[in-house]
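Please, structure for the following, as tokens.
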Amino acid sequence: MKWKQNIMLPFLLSLVLCLGFSCDDKTGTSTRPVSKPSSTVSKTSSLPTQQLEIAGETFIVELAFTSHSRQTGLMGRPELASDRGMLFVFADSQPRSFYMKNCLIDLDALFIKPDGTIDTITTMVKPAPGKPLRYYPSRTAIQYVLELPSGTAHRLKLRPGHKIEMPERVKNIIPEMD
């Protein structure tokens, strides 16, 4: 019986120490999500991604389909590669407005109907410090908003009416309601 206590005590202590340190996110290596204060702006993302074909070019877009990921968007990102973007997926189709709170870069926003047709294209400009936020609305009911680096829509010659084929994976997402 004594030998079991001698083995079990160090084992239990090791287990407690390992569990305690594995959840500590000071090194940034934890796999457990850590909630951050709302004033903290994330510069990286752990959102799922999807390839999206747009006017013959392939983009890797982050999928924002939770309330939190849609509210956070591309806040705090100092840059966005020319082949990257973020696709906001909503549960329903309705008129929507976007704004650029805590955004550090200008973005093209494509407001997209449920069938993949582009409704509105606008360039959203990063807000000037101390100035009120500007809202960028869709013209009609939309279900998706695609944010790309500023100038991409012009470079690809995108126009309202152009269609973007949404992959089945995107169509099958069940987004959180706001």
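The helical segments are 2-22, 67-72, 152-155, 168-171. The first strand starts at residue 49 and ends at 54.
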